[in-house]
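dumping this here so i dont lose it
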């Protein structure tokens, strides 16, 4: 394992040969609202989102579901290296088998950084971990929403990051599974650019009403990292 410190006195992390820690995972961990209860990460990869949430919320416990055994082992190693193994359970399994893997209505929070692109669109990576992370060949948006709907208790929240062009599909899918879209935050590189990511929260059994939060700008007008980007990445601590 080749661990690196994410920020001074912060957690250490090793992607284990998969994707390096991506901005979408970091932004999702910042957007999600962990509480004191039990959370679940769907398609956890090497455990980056759960690691950041556990580091931030000392009373949180996470179950982490991952299809690839190599990535699941890496996630377990990351939790153990940070002294978080007692609060994180890694489940090597397919989220399409969620009725066997997860208890219904057990979780107050679900998070997911799912594949963004439908199967067959674009080039597929020869690396299995990268291919699964990019393409919906083994995990579709519907699969994620089905698993989250099963796992969340009434009032529990699903936080995910996705592509803005799929927002209509996300909202429609959430509502079809009794999850009401409650928060939306778009991510742009600059004020002049179009949104590149969408952060969405849906609440199980929530009342209608969507809050659109201020756009997250990654760069200021002069091209430097924005103040919020620096906060999210703990850049002032480096």
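and the seq i came up w/
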């Amino acid at each position: 394992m080749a661990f690196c410190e994410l920020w001074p006195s912060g957690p250490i992390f090793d992607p284990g040969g998969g994707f390096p820690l991506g901005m979408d995972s970091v932004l999702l961990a910042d957007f999600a609202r962990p509480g004191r209860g039990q959370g679940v990460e769907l398609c956890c990869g090497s455990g980056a989102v759960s690691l950041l949430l556990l580091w931030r919320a000392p009373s949180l416990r996470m179950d982490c579901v991952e299809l690839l055994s190599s990535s699941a082992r890496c996630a377990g190693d990351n939790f153990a290296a940070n002294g978080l193994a007692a609060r994180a359970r890694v489940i090597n399994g397919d989220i399409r088998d969620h009725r066997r893997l997860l208890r219904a209505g057990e979780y107050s929070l679900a998070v997911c950084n799912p594949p963004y692109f439908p199967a067959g669109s674009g080039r597929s990576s020869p690396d299995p971990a990268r291919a699964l992370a990019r393409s919906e060949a083994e995990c579709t948006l519907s699969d994620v929403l089905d698993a989250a709907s099963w796992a969340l208790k009434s009032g529990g929240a699903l936080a995910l990051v996705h592509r803005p062009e799929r927002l209509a599909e996300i909202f429609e899918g959430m509502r079809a599974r009794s999850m009401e879209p409650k928060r939306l935050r778009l991510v742009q590189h600059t004020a002049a650019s179009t949104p590149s990511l969408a952060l969405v929260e849906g609440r199980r059994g929530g009342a209608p009403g969507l809050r659109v939060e201020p756009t997250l700008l990654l760069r200021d007008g002069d091209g430097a990292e924005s103040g919020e980007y620096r906060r999210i990445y703990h850049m002032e601590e480096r």
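The longest strand covers residues 152-162.
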